[in-house]
Design a protein that fits this description.
Layout lengths: L1 H34 L3 H5 L3 E10 L2 E10 L4 E7 L2 E7 L4 E4 L9 E2 L2 H10 L15 E10 L2 E9 L5 E7 L5 E10 L2 E15 L2 E11 L2 E12 L14 H4 L6 E11 L4 E16 L2 E9 L3 E11 L4 E8 L5 E9 L2 E7 L11 E7 L5 E9 L7 E10 L3
Antiparallel strand pairs: 1-2, 1-13, 2-3, 3-4, 4-5, 5-6, 7-8, 8-9, 9-10, 10-11, 11-12, 12-13, 14-15, 14-23, 15-16, 16-17, 17-18, 18-19, 19-20, 20-21, 21-22, 22-23
């Protein structure tokens, strides 16, 4: 009986300690949020426009960013000598970062997505953290750089953790330890917050300095505007300039199929069909079409652009022969021309060469002419002609 009483008492003390600890965390976070201004005022903020100066690689230049209440983020900044654009829709995002020798937009990896969750926050992750599915743990009171702070561990829904150090006197953030990225690679980082200013009754740090490895990044905010109009299109990943030239392909099409009669030396109608062409990735277009030239040709064709070779390419899978044909070519003077190639071989070694020419391009129509050559491209013979007309919705 004594053992049961002792065990029960110990359990009760542990439960009381846990409850007290949870109440202490809630109290600290409440004071932290209140230190940034009335929550009612923050609840009325739908968007923020931030302008200032950003320093990286010892180069200081203009900085611009948009944040929205639902976690979207867009920024334009100078990273050394390169202009960088970043965007995040709350879950996924994209960037154009010439530092990595990419002049076209690319998707963010998971480490970068975690970074953009941090960038998109209005002022603190503890604002509505429970509603957002995050968890917190009180590490305890500490002294950092001679300042009394409360250390709190934040656990995000993606599993990433951060340690926040809140000034024990002001309850404003002093430092954050979190995961960041350096050229898309995940790295540990420390962020320091300073120069807190009041705008319309809301308190925001106008100076943040981030250190990771040997890097140092400084953002000095100059102006913040609340509830600005936001163009939602800026969060959508754009297409590359090259793939935009192929936008004429996109749509639902009615297709007339003509086959060439060598004996009659003329085209004759072989089939009438339909085709759907759409983006399956930001810089990848796909067509699915089935038609009859004599046999049934069921093809799936992907179109893209190789920046390393400065050429367009296509790969066509034939459901008739179960073969894949690769082609590459150029877009010149409103005409898109592709020629077939063999992997690892010179084009001239192909026994039969195929040329596909997209011409007569308008908003609602275009023509695809397919030709064959048996003499290494010295002469070409017509084979199939597909005339596309946009289907009315």
């Amino acid at each position: 009986m004594k053992q049961i009483t002792k065990y029960t008492l110990t359990s009760l003390l542990l439960i009381v300690a846990l409850i007290t600890n949870a109440q202490t965390v809630d109290e600290i976070i409440t004071r932290h949020r209140n230190a940034h201004g009335e929550l009612k005022k923050w609840d009325q903020v739908e968007s923020m426009k931030i302008t200032g100066r950003f320093t990286a690689f010892s180069v200081e230049d203009d900085f611009f960013a948009i944040k929205t209440k639902d976690g979207k983020y867009y920024s334009e900044l100078k990273l050394g000598q390169f202009d960088v654009i970043e965007a995040f829709n709350g879950e996924t995002g994209w960037t154009i970062d010439p530092w990595q020798e990419f002049t076209f937009p690319r998707e963010l990896n998971k480490s970068e997505q975690n970074v953009f969750l941090q960038k998109a926050e209005f002022f603190t992750p503890f604002y509505n953290y429970k509603e957002n599915g995050c968890e917190v743990e009180l590490i305890g009171k500490q002294v950092v750089d001679g300042i009394d702070v409360y250390a709190i561990k934040l656990i995000r829904t993606n599993g990433h953790t951060e340690t926040w150090y809140l000034d024990a006197n002001t309850y404003l953030e002093y430092k954050r330890e979190s995961r960041w990225v350096d050229f898309a690679y995940g790295v540990p980082a420390e962020t320091y917050f300073d120069d807190f200013r009041e705008i319309d009754g809301l308190i925001i740090p106008f100076l943040t300095e981030k250190t990771f490895w040997q890097r140092d990044r400084v953002l000095q905010i100059e102006n913040i505007e609340f509830n600005v109009d936001v163009d939602e299109n800026v969060f959508t990943m754009p297409k590359s300039a090259e793939i935009e030239k192929l936008a004429f392909l996109i749509g639902n099409w009615g297709v007339r199929v003509n086959a060439w009669s060598g004996r009659a030396n003329r085209w004759y109608k072989a089939d009438s069909t339909s085709s759907t062409i759409d983006y399956i990735a930001t810089n990848l277009i796909q067509e699915k079409i089935s038609f009859i030239d004599f046999f049934v040709q069921s093809n799936i064709t992907n179109f893209g652009y190789s920046s390393s070779e400065s050429k367009y390419f296509s790969t066509t899978y034939s459901g008739f022969s179960s073969e894949i044909m690769m082609m590459n070519g150029v877009f010149t003077d409103s005409t898109f021309v592709l020629n077939n190639v063999k992997i690892g071989c010179d084009t001239s070694q192909a026994s039969i060469q195929i040329k596909a020419t997209y011409s007569n391009i308008t908003e609602d129509s275009f023509t695809l002419g397919i030709e064959q050559s048996g003499d290494n491209g010295k002469s070409w013979n017509p084979w199939v002609q597909l005339i596309y007309g946009r289907m009315k919705e």
